[in-house]
Design a protein that fits this description.
single chain; 110 residues; alpha+beta; 3-stranded mixed beta sheet; 40% helix; elongated
């Protein structure tokens, strides 16, 4: 009997668990299932990774400063993503009212 392709919700959960952007499903006539990984790092993937690292660093500084889950902050960082959506994501995840270029990473309660 032919096997059905996995459902989109299943593939979404699998992608999340594997920490990958997407999973594509292709049927081929082979005895055993095969897995092919796309490992090419595009500039947007590199920027996304650096953005996630920055969010982790900001969250760590928030914890060190004893800031609560509702405290808003101002962030200065030597690196900021070019992508506006990623900047908005940083602000949302860290409760930052502003993101500015600075010499060192700095998180200040507003």
């Amino acid at each position: 009997a032919p096997e059905k392709a996995p459902t989109k919700p299943f593939l979404d959960v699998l992608a999340d668990e594997l920490n990958v952007k997407e999973i594509s499903w292709k049927r081929k006539r082979v005895e055993e299932p095969q897995v092919v990984l796309q490992t090419k790092l595009t500039s947007s993937l590199v920027e996304e990774g650096k953005t996630r690292d920055l969010v982790r660093e900001i969250q760590e500084l928030r914890r060190k400063h004893g800031l609560g889950l509702v405290d808003t902050v101002r962030v200065k960082s030597p690196w900021l993503p070019n992508d506006k959506k990623m900047r908005v994501w940083i602000k949302t995840k860290t409760l930052a009212q502003s993101l500015e270029q600075g010499e060192v990473l700095e998180v200040v309660k507003i």
